[in-house]
């Protein structure tokens, strides 16, 4: 009987899951940090990472919600970068000190650049006859970091496009009437900022990137993890990059990349998960993995 119970206990431990890629209203998500944690609770997750674009503004609220709903919240960030002025690369950071003045200063530069870019987009769209108001774009951002999705939502509201996908395709992709290049930071600079904040750097949705030679360069510069499981990855892609991670001593992460958009078939919180052991690996790899700071976050 004891052996049976041990098997059941081991099974329960193995089934503890985590979603390591989510977005909130602090950046371009539609769910508040509290709502993301609530969604993680409904999905019966053990942990969820808050990885907003270029901001840590939602982490404090999420941590408070995690204590309320008994969900471990991993402080994170997703930093948008450009490699060699050609390739867009997103770098995730896990178990960061989100109060780090150096990190906040660097992210503020990106946030301000997002604001300026969105304003220029609105000006270009207005000049092209797409009449949207920058004030409305700010309202849609809800005080968080402004991104192209907020401009796209304003375009849809104005009746110039039927959906956000259509708004992106018609106006906001490169060559479109509202396209504005964004402020550029390199993947190495992003990794440096994450490292300075005590976190672990991870390259996001690597199967979409299709730049294994870049991954090798990033590994040599301190990359510790890659996002092998992502809703845009095929089954073959997930398997390949899990093997890739194992062969190079990397942590293979995964997450839903949930933004909470009900109208465009984006995945929800918990739709893509990894075993909780990945959380343990990330915590151990972080500079403060065994410190009282992280322990306090989990209480």
Give a structural overview.
The chain is α/β, with parallel strands linked by helices and 299 residues long. The protein has 2 domains: 2-99 and 183-298, Alpha-Beta Barrel (TIM Barrel), CATH 3.20.20.140; 109-172, DNA polymerase, domain 1 (Orthogonal Bundle). Helix content is 47%, strand content 15%. The protein has 13 helices and 8 strands. Strands 7-6-5-4-3-2-1-8 form an 8-stranded mixed sheet. Strand 3 (72-83) and strand 4 form a beta hairpin. Helix 2 (33-42) runs parallel beside helix 3 (59-69), helix 5 crosses helix 6 (148-157) and helix 6 (148-157) crosses helix 7. The radius of gyration is 19 Å and the shape is globular. Mean pLDDT is 89; it is low at 290-299.
Key traits:
299 residues; alpha/beta; TIM Barrel; DNA polymerase, domain 1; 2 domains; 8-stranded mixed β-sheet; 13 helices; 47% helix
Note the overall shape: globular
The number of distinct β-strands equals 8
Order of strands in the sheet with most strands: 7-6-5-4-3-2-1-8
How many independent structural domains? Answer: 2
Within the CATH hierarchy, at the fold level, what is the topology of the largest domain? TIM Barrel
Level of helix content? 40-55%
The CATH architecture classification of the largest domain is: Alpha-Beta Barrel
What's the story with the biggest beta sheet?
Answer: 8 strands, mixed
Indicate the proportion of strand residues. 15-25%
Number of helices: 13
State the separation between the terminal residues, measured CA to CA: 34 Å
CATH superfamily of the largest domain: Metal-dependent hydrolases
CATH class of the largest domain: Alpha Beta
Structural class estimated from helices and strands: alpha/beta
Radius of gyration, CA atoms, in whole angstroms: 19 Å
């Amino acid at each position: 009987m004891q052996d049976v119970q041990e098997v059941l206990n081991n099974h329960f431990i193995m089934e503890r899951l985590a979603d390591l890629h989510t977005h909130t209203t602090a950046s371009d998500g539609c769910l508040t940090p509290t709502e993301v944690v609530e969604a993680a609770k409904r999905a019966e997750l053990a942990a969820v990472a808050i990885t907003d674009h270029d901001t840590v503004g939602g982490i404090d609220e999420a941590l408070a919600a995690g204590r309320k709903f008994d969900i471990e919240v991993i402080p994170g960030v997703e930093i948008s970068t450009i490699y060699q002025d050609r390739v867009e690369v997103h770098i995730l950071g896990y178990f960061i000190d989100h109060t780090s003045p150096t990190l906040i200063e660097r992210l503020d530069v990106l946030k301000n650049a997002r604001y300026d870019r969105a304003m220029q987009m609105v000006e270009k769209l207005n000049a092209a006859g797409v009449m949207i108001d920058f004030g409305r774009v700010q309202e849609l951002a809800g005080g968080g970091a402004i991104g192209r999705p907020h401009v796209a939502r304003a375009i849809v509201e104005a009746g110039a496009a039927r959906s956000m996908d259509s708004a992106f395709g018609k106006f906001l992709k490169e060559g479109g009437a509202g396209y504005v290049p964004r402020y550029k930071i390199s993947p190495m600079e992003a990794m440096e900022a994450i490292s300075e904040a005590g976190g672990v750097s991870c390259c996001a949705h690597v199967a979409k990137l299709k730049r294994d030679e870049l991954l090798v360069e990033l590994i040599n510069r301190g990359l510790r993890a890659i996002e092998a499981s992502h809703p845009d990855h095929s089954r073959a892609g997930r398997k390949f990059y899990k093997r890739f991670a194992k062969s190079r001593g990397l942590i293979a992460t995964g997450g839903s990349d949930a933004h909470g958009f009900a109208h465009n078939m984006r995945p929800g919180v918990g739709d893509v998960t990894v075993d909780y052991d990945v959380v343990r690996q990330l915590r151990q790899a972080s500079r403060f993995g065994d410190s009282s700071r992280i322990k306090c976050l989990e209480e």
